[in-house]
Every structure is written in structure tokens, then in C-alpha cells.
């Protein structure tokens, strides 16, 4: 497994990171915990060293399953979790609380769930407009100095919001959505991270399933699935006519790029994300070992210049269909 520098932290992480949101047991539908454990262990065996989770994934269920799966191998990986967003018992809407009091409460619960005494990277999951960023980052700095966290960062913040956080302490790691159907971060976030030496975790590398090649124009999602509304982090790429058009885009990627190369389209999508030198690790979610296996080769795939030109041409054609993508209004949208 290829490894990359994790910004200026001094850590090295696998090019493909393991995303645990699909293991939450709610937002992607029910899961078999034992199968999810095997998926984590398959990733470990394959050399994956970056594992990402959050209390907001199944009200802590993903953290619990991940902690169980890692076991004694926890010391071999870079463990990332988050704070500041949660689902109240029985609630369906995410609540935000990035206050010092809540962060101090959340870190203890996460440490217990994950079966560890230190978190390698602790991120603020989403901006909390009710709490000054300075208060949030003073709390994170306190955790670093207390030895419970090694590095800190943010997820889904704008550059201006990051600048406010950095009046208290540097940001080590940033996590943002990035895939062929969502290139918003290339405008401001990526140049800022490169300038500041901030490590970048890209989530949604396979466009939340769209770039696996498994969707058809008739694909539907259950009401418990977060993709049911068809909107993925501000972009209606899975909604109605957009889904049908975007499935056709994926079919073109498969026919014109993946099939001639003899690989699944998911590997092309992952290789495309990893072409960007700003990206330290590309997160891919998995619920079972076969899903891990399918994507591993994408980390070793190197796209040719001709393939990149063909991919850009296909995506440019798709972007010309106004309803296929959300106009790039702001770098970050609400969590749908």
C-alpha cells in the first residue's frame, strides 16, 4: 500500500483510508457487525493505516465496531475521530455543539468506545455557529497538551473559518468531500492547505456509491438511507433526472476509460482522487471485506495523460448539463 505524508504532522498514512460511516447501522441501513469487523481486519492486512470514524456515525456505533475490530492492532494505525456533532436519542437531525464542555465530554466517550487512551487526529466534524471558533480550538489545544489527542483539525470548514481557528493554534488536518462529481475544494480549500502544510483527507471518493458502477437509472434508496433525498452534501447528484444523467456519465467512464484499462470504474475514480498531490488519503467506506478488496488496486493505479484528458472531457460534457451538478455557491453546504 502506497503511503503519503500526513501534512506536516510527521505521520505517514495509507493512500486509501478506511471510512466507517457505512458501519454506523443507521444512515446506510442495518449492517452485520461481524462482517464489518472482518472488513476492517481485511483492510489492516492489506496495509491500510488510516481509519476514520465519528460519534455521529450511528450515535457512536461505528466507533464501537471499529474499536472492537482494531483490538491490539490499534497501535499500528492512525486513528481519526471527531467531535461537535451528534444525534440525540431517537432524533433524526444532527445537532451541533463544539463548546469546550461538550468536547471534554465527547473525548472521554470516544476513547472508551474505541478502546484507546489517545486519539491520533481529532477533528471538529462541522462548524458550530453558536460557539466561537476560538473556544473550540482552545479546548482542542487543551486536549493535545493533556496527551489525549496528538493532532487536531476540522472537517467541512471554509478557509475563513479555518483562519479564525488558527488564531488559537495551527490546524494539522482537514477533511473535506472530494470526487469526480464534486471539485469545489479545488478552488480555495486545497490551495490553502498546500500553503499551510495541512494534511488533507478526502471523503466520498466514490461519490457515495455513484462511482462504484453499481447504480442504475432505476436505483432507489430506502428512507433510512441518508441518500434517500438524492442530495449529497449540497449537490443533488442522486436525485431524479440528475441520477439518470450521472449514471450515464459513470457508464461513459467505464466504457471509455475503465474497460480499456481492464479495471472497475471505482478504481479509476480512486486513482483520479489520488492524482491530486494535496490529498494525503482518500477515504473509502466499507461494510464487508469484498468492498475493501475491490478498491485496493485503485491506490496502485496510475492514470496516463491520455486517460486523464478523456476523464476531464467526459466530466466537462456532464457539467454542461445544468441540472447534473449544483452551482458552486459556497465551499461547504449543510449536512443533508
Question: CATH superfamily of one domain, called what?
Answer: NADP-dependent oxidoreductase domain
> What overall form do the CA principal axes indicate?
globular
Spatial strand sequence of the major β-sheet? 3-4-5-8-9-10-11-12
Amino-to-carboxy terminus distance: 33 Å
Tell me the series of helices and strands, N- to C-terminal: EEEHEHEEEHEHEHEHEHHEHH
Give the tally of β-strands. Answer: 12
Rg value: 19 Å
The amount of helix comes to 25-40%
Number of helices: 10
Which fold name is given in CATH as the topology of one domain? Answer: TIM Barrel
Look at the structure and give the mean pLDDT.
89
CATH architecture label of one domain:
Alpha-Beta Barrel
The low-confidence parts are 322-336
Structural class by SSE content: alpha/beta
> Percent of residues in beta strands?
15-25%
Question: For the report, how would you describe the main beta sheet?
Answer: 8 strands, parallel, barrel
Key structural traits:
alpha/beta; 12 strands; 36% helix; 336 residues; two-stranded antiparallel ribbon; TIM Barrel; 10 helices
Structural features, described:
The protein has helices at residues 33-45, 61-70, 100-114, 133-145, 159-165, 189-196, 240-261, 265-274, 289-296, 305-319, and strands spanning 3-5, 12-14, 16-19, 50-52, 78-83, 85-87, 94-96, 119-124, 149-155, 173-177, 199-203, 279-285. With 336 residues, it is of the alpha/beta class. The protein has a domain at 3-207 and 273-301: NADP-dependent oxidoreductase domain (TIM Barrel), CATH 3.20.20.100. α1 (33-45) links the parallel β3 and β4. α1 packs parallel to α9 (289-296) and α3 (100-114) crosses α4. The chain is globular, with a radius of gyration of 19 Å.
Amino acid at each position: 500500500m502506497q503511503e503519503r505524508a500526513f501534512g506536516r504532522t510527521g505521520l505517514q498514512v495509507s493512500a486509501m483510508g478506511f471510512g466507517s460511516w457505512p458501519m454506523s447501522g443507521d444512515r446506510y441501513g442495518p449492517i452485520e457487525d461481524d462482517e464489518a469487523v472482518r472488513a476492517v481486519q481485511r483492510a489492516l492486512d492489506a496495509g491500510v493505516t488510516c481509519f476514520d470514524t465519528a460519534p455521529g456515525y450511528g450515535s457512536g456505533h461505528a466507533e464501537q465496531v471499529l474499536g472492537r475490530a482494531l483490538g491490539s492492532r490499534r497501535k499500528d494505525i492512525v486513528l481519526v475521530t471527531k467531535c461537535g456533532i451528534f444525534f440525540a436519542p431517537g432524533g433524526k437531525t444532527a445537532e451541533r455543539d463544539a463548546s469546550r464542555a461538550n468536547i471534554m465530554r465527547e473525548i472521554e466517550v470516544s476513547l472508551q468506545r474505541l478502546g484507546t487512551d489517545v486519539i491520533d487526529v481529532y477533528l471538529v466534524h462541522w462548524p458550530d455557529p453558536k460557539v466561537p471558533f476560538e473556544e473550540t480550538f482552545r479546548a482542542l489545544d487543551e486536549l493535545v497538551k493533556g496527551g489525549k489527542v496528538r493532532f487536531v483539525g476540522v472537517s467541512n470548514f471554509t478557509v475563513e473559518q479555518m483562519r479564525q481557528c488558527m488564531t488559537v493554534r495551527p490546524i494539522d488536518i482537514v477533511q473535506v468531500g472530494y470526487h469526480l462529481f464534486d471539485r469545489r475544494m479545488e478552488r480555495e480549500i486545497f490551495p490553502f492547505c498546500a500553503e499551510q502544510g495541512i494534511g488533507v483527507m478526502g471523503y466520498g471518493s466514490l461519490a457515495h456509491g455513484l462511482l462504484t458502477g453499481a447504480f442504475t437509472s432505476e436505483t432507489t434508496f430506502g428512507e433510512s438511507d441518508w441518500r434517500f433525498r438524492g442530495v449529497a452534501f449540497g449537490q443533488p447528484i442522486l436525485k431524479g433526472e440528475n441520477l439518470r444523467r450521472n449514471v450515464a456519465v459513470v457508464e461513459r467512464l467505464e466504457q471509455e476509460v475503465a474497460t480499456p484499462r481492464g479495471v472497475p470504474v471505482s478504481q479509476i475514480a480512486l486513482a483520479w482522487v489520488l492524482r491530486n498531490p494535496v490529498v494525503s488519503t482518500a477515504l473509502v467506506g466499507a461494510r464487508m471485506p469484498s468492498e475493501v478488496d475491490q478498491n485496493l488496486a485503485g491506490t496502485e493505479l496510475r492514470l496516463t495523460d491520455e486517460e486523464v484528458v478523456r476523464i476531464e472531457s467526459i466530466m466537462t460534457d456532464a457539467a454542461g448539463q445544468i441540472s447534473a451538478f449544483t452551482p458552486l455557491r459556497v465551499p461547504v453546504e449543510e449536512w443533508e
